[in-house]
Recover the amino acids of this structure.
């Protein structure tokens, strides 16, 4: 992931670097590639563009290794075998997927399908005795998500949600500063997440497959961002929907939703979720003694952050590389991440999404019980 | 206001300058101080810190002139006479104020008192046949504001609201770009206005005098900002209040309110009004083709602005100087400003404030009819 030279150049520019470093790799790991601890052997399921991004990022992982692939398209499996050096015996179609239970060389399945398929594939992976990593949103709603949590618990496998931002160094540095009181009493979070979505025929704009619209895909970043930036669980939500292109965003597929979350301390979050605008991707946290801003806050590219005290000069990391290495430690060594990524965390966000959709319809403040 | 040298230095850095310039002063006015047109002769009423700021700014005015003062404190009148060269015959106490009707050397009274006194003093000034400029908020509520509009109409005098941002060059440049389609279809405005208020005994935290809390004072900037940045009138509002310091912010005095406005085009505004945080003062306007940001957006100091195309390099102006010169033209020459500053404009904002307070209580979407 890093060249030695680049690493040494960058380390000199960041006094705070070492404190954040443990969440990515140990110094010795990076410098020597001498890691000889446990490795999580992962099969990716659903070989679309995001799976390809994860697979590429995993080439730089130390503690996680891409070893298998599951797809409904035979040609994709062939392509991945050659591109990522995956043995044919670790490849499955959706029909043969359940046989993965007999494969001792795969520890975990990372489900990267349209949202409606998260639950069935997670349940099948759990039945096969494999740990499950599931892309966000965890499920179509909290009820489905809870079924997944219960099934994985029953099967004695772990269930994680693919929340890559939960391991992002600048994000974690802001959380650290918040915890030590740098920003004083936290009063406000503003999250603006959205982009202009293209092809109207894609699954993300299909209610059956996506379970909703922008909220399920990009608004969810503001939801869990509000929670991890403020550091509390919200107790109420209000929401307002607007739709400027009903031909593209059909019934049940939200284009733009404003939502507000209230927290026990009195802090509030005000957020935007949209598929109709670009130029967003900003988190802003404000307290009585200072502020923190992440902009971009959730994109794949470098996250940029600053606080009342100045710029955060940290290493840029490939999110999915860090995520998969950290998830390996969570699964294999019971490591507790600073911001949780377990199934219960995913269910909390689904409960908030359920309440947002309810609040849009009721026009009222909906109570949350996370 | 500008030195010739500074002006020439700055003009070279801004290709867009000339298009904005007509809203401040004509080139020849600045360069020669040769203005010999009509001058609005103004008395300030309520000689607190903001009036002092206005009086200082008016020293650089061309078309408006500070000629009178009205105060309940005799010593302040003495101080102002010497400091601002105001003749004693143009000074009034609150008791003698109505005699201003017999003074042919004063054209207008600028009311800069606690909010609850705006209406009575505006009515008295109108009865005396003087034009009225009233600090924002126009009144304690829309009903009061409408009475003021009606009284001034009946007295055949003009009523303006002290909306200094309505003449701010970067703000107006963004409005110009929006009007020519630079940002595409406008979809979103985010206004964050607030500051940490000090002395708990001040009139701004007294319900009787202020009529409310942060919303009346600083939230109103986000309200009229949403309207002039989006360029439409909102049709609904929702609002959520939070209060973390009920000892400081008593019943009827709002500390922090989130509010949302919906517009006929489908655009939405999401705003924060607070007396409990600093590090705010940001306007963000987003459309399908680009964005505009003002940060700071409403403070007294230099406003800084940028769009998708880069920084807005404009002259920094003293807001109150430009405001008073422009208001002179509005009053004396019937000039129509790009963003209105008349009493009706003030009433619209009061209607929205009324609806925000109503929405906080009802927890529902309140319909607006401006």
């Amino acid at each position: 992931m890093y060249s030695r030279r680049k690493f040494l150049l960058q380390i000199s520019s960041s006094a705070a670097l070492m404190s954040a470093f443990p969440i990515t790799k140990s110094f010795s790991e990076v410098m020597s590639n001498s890691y000889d601890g446990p490795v999580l052997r992962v099969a990716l399921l659903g070989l679309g563009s995001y799976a390809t991004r994860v697979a590429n990022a995993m080439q730089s992982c130390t503690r996680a290794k891409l070893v298998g692939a599951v797809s409904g398209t035979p040609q994709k499996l062939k392509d991945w075998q050659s591109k990522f050096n995956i043995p044919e015996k670790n490849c499955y179609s959706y029909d043969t997927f359940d046989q993965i239970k007999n494969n001792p060389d795969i520890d975990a399945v990372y489900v990267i399908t349209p949202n409606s398929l998260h639950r069935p594939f997670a349940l099948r992976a759990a039945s096969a005795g494999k740990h499950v990593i599931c892309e966000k949103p965890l499920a179509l709603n909290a009820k489905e998500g809870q079924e997944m949590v219960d099934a994985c618990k029953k099967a004695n496998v772990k269930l994680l949600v693919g929340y890559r931002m939960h391991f992002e160094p600048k994000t974690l540095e802001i959380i650290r500063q918040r915890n030590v009181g740098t920003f004083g009493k936290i009063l406000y979070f503003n999250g603006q997440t959205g982009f202009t979505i293209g092809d109207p025929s894609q699954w993300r704009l299909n209610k059956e497959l996506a379970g909703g619209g922008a909220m399920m895909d990009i608004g969810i970043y503001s939801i869990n961002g509000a929670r991890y930036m403020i550091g509390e669980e919200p107790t109420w939500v209000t929401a307002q929907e607007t739709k400027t292109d009903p031909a593209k965003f059909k019934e049940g597929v939200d284009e733009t939703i404003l939502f507000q979350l209230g927290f026990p301390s009195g802090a509030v979050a005000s957020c935007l979720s949209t598929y109709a605008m670009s130029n967003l991707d900003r988190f802003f946290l404000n307290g009585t003694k200072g502020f923190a801003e992440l902009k971009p806050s959730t994109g794949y590219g470098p996250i940029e952050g600053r606080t009342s005290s100045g710029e955060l000069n940290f290493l840029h990391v490939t999110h999915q590389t860090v995520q998969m290495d950290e998830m390996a430690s969570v699964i294999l060594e019971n490591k507790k991440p600073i911001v949780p990524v377990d199934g219960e965390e995913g269910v909390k966000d689904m409960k908030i999404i359920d309440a947002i959709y309810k609040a849009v319809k009721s026009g009222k403040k909906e109570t949350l019980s996370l």
Notes: Confidence is low (pLDDT under 50) at residues 1-24 of chain B.
